[in-house]
TrEMBL record:
Residue intervals of the Plastocyanin-like domain: 174-291
Protein name, as recorded: Plastocyanin-like domain-containing protein
Compositionally biased tracts (Basic and acidic residues): 112-126
Keyword Transferase included in the entry's annotation: no
Composition skew (Polar residues), residue ranges: 127-137
Highest classification ranks of the organism: Bacteria, Pseudomonadati, Pseudomonadota, Betaproteobacteria, Burkholderiales
Region (Disordered): 112-137
Any matching Pfam family: Cu-oxidase_2
InterPro entries: Cu-oxidase_C, Cu_oxidase_CS, Cu_oxidase_Cu_BS, Cupredoxin
Subcellular localization: Periplasm
Length: 306
């Protein structure tokens, strides 16, 4: 990096099973990351209809498949070591305890380019421009839309052998691409799903084709985990659900999600744990989106918002 020139970074967790907890440090001292977007959606975008604003954090949790965009400042010349690191991640008794480790080292180059200046006064304009140009109607009214159905889903497993993406009220089954869908929904609707982790290791809930609004992260602390910063109230397609501590008196950790089926996507697609060894061992299921009999869909966003 050059002195005085802030940069816009996009980071993707493409690891098969590692959770990252990003932190930017100068000589071991955490620095501020100015978050702009997660999973392709600008933060604080008010249902996608209002200008977004950057959010300052000192660390950010990324399960596999998560994407994040943020602004960073260069280290001052006096800094000996500037790094993007991942903090230690406790994945539970059956998961990896991932150590703190560096991901990238930042070096300061020569002088500032002519005509540039370090100025954070326009940070809010980055999110504002993005929200207006790409997401103005994308999730309009999702937070207050009529909920057509509520469902309870869960992660369960027989470690090292069988892993299940369960739906309450149905027999547990390993993923079979030729099986009937576990869930059938109608295009143009909104549903609320609670996803529990009934296992002693972390899982990452991911759904194809659509995003969801994170309504809450529940029962994390009682099981020895912390809620991920910034996540509640944001629109994601991947979210971590941390481990259950196996205390029978403790409720399972869970997330409550509002899923947006009002878009153009119909047909069969999957939802699963994005820890790939779990997914490959069966922790995946199919949702079928049937066309609306009334031809509803994309236009319902405006109706829900009114």
């Amino acid at each position: 990096m050059r002195p005085g020139e802030r940069e816009f970074w996009r980071v993707t967790n493409t690891a098969a099973d590692s959770v990252l907890d990003l932190q930017y440090v100068f000589d071991g001292v955490p620095q501020t990351l100015q978050l702009v977007a997660v999973d392709g959606v600008p933060l604080n975008s008010q249902d996608g209809t209002e200008p977004a604003a950057v959010t300052p954090v000192t660390h950010f949790t990324m399960p596999p498949a998560s994407r994040v965009e943020f602004i960073v400042s260069p280290p001052p010349p006096r800094v000996r070591l500037a790094q993007l690191t991942t903090l230690r991640v406790n994945g539970g008794p059956y998961f990896y305890n991932l150590p703190q480790r560096p991901l990238a080292t930042v070096q300061l180059l020569g002088g500032r380019r002519e005509g540039t200046k370090e100025d954070s006064s326009d940070d809010h304009q980055i999110g504002r421009s993005t929200a207006k140009s790409t997401t103005q109607q994308r999730f309009a009214g999702l937070g207050t839309a009529h909920v057509a159905a509520t469902r309870a889903l869960y992660f369960n497993e027989f470690p090292l052998s069988e892993y299940f993406m369960g739906v309450e009220g149905q027999p547990e089954r390993l993923f079979d691409p030729n099986a009937a869908p576990s869930i059938v929904v109608t295009q143009g609707t909104v549903e609320e799903w609670t996803v529990e982790n009934r296992t002693p290791e972390n899982h990452a809930f991911h759904i194809h084709q659509i995003h969801f609004l994170v309504k809450s992260q529940d029962n994390f602390e009682i099981n020895g985990s912390q809620q991920a910063p910034v996540i509640t109230g944001q629109y994601l397609d991947t979210v971590q659900v941390p481990f259950w501590d196996q205390n029978p008196n403790h409720p399972f950790p869970s997330v409550k999600l509002r899923l947006d089926f009002r878009g153009p996507d119909i047909g069969d697609f999957v939802f699963h744990c994005h820890v790939l060894s779990h997914e490959d061992a069966g922790m995946m299921a199919i949702v079928r989106v049937q066309p609306s009999p009334k031809g509803k869909g994309e236009n319902d966003r405006e109706n829900d918002h009114r």
